[in-house]
Amino acid sequence: MEPTARLEVAADQHHRYAVEIRSGLLRELPEQLALRFPGARLALISDSGVAPLYAQPLLAALHARGQLASLHVVAAGEASKSVEQWQRLVGQLHAAGLDRRGVVVNVGGGVACDLGGMVAATYMRGIAYANVPTTLLAQHDAAIGGKVAVNAPWAKNFLGAFHQPRHVWIDPETLRTLDRRQLAAGLAESIKVAMIGEPELLSLLERDARHLLARDSVRLGEVVGRSAAKKIELLAGDPFEHDLRRPLNLGHTFGHALETELEYEGLLHGEAVAWGLVVALEIACARGLCPAADRDRIVALLARCELPPPVAAERLHAALGRLAAIRLVRGNRLHYVLPTSATSVTIDEVASDELQAAVAAAIAQPLLRPRASAAHAG
What we know:
Blueprint: E1 5-12, E2 15-21, H1 29-36, E3 42-47, H2 51-64, E4 69-74, H3 83-95, E5 103-108, H4 110-122, E6 128-133, H5 136-140, E7 147-152, E8 155-162, E9 167-170, H6 180-197, H7 199-213, H8 217-235, H9 252-261, H10 269-287, H11 292-304, H12 313-318, H13 323-329, E10 335-341, E11 344-349, H14 352-364, H15 369-373
Parallel strand pairs: 2-9, 3-4, 3-5, 5-6, 6-9
Antiparallel strand pairs: 1-2, 7-8, 10-11
Helix pairs in contact: 3-4, 6-7, 6-8, 6-10, 7-8, 9-10, 10-11, 10-14
């Protein structure tokens, strides 16, 4: 897929929006916003790391055009996806005079997209919003699909809604300012998408891992385009997740539990997903579903992408205790997405003893043993 693309999302008969992917798109955004939302007051939501790079210049350009706009900044990091920050932002938007015709524009990574989308979903019972994702992970995950949320102490994304964006603008050039760790975390989501059924994407990731970590914007644009297209395809049949066994949950069941166990600090979302992928692979291998060679292929690719990062072994085991909240969300049943090869999956229930054994096997993985033994997030 070309790094310049326009993808159409049809969430249902009432919710359709475009995902535009093009280098240099950010420079066109003031005009694009004026065309898409004529006369609307805009509220930009960003984080403290991204705001100086992209949100503040965008705000200045909007003001230069005479556009009514305000900027609202939260601290960078998953801890900002909280009820307290949601409430603070709602108050700020009210103070800024945002009305029912107002539009929230989220500029940043997954936290900005999820939190800003939650604000838009609940402000005056729901107003329009658009996403301008600036991280690799957000560009093909959080920015697309309309799942918005904040975290609770007992579970990630426990409070949220399905509220579809009106537009998504993706500029691969923003990835040039992304630090290497954030970039690697985004690649975990790309690997996940490839495992669901995108062999060409998997080959691209294996071939170009070094260039991707070096911020090659052309190659990154292709990864984003392929990953986003696959996610849109998978969303098409169940945009509001009535079927709670969606393949896109690959790596997320354990990954979300691990993030909750670590209290949303010390580990990026994509890094937690990487651990979740390894655990899913170990369950599948133990069942005889997935050949060991395919497991090793994916683990080797994760390692080449500097994933997953070190986490103390006791915290990995403790994360299993957090799965009760996930069972609650899923009707007290723990369906798990399990690989059947490097690029195919199935879904089945798993037992507690299987999960315990899989975490132990993940910790003992030869390629990952140095990572598991260190206390990076412990």
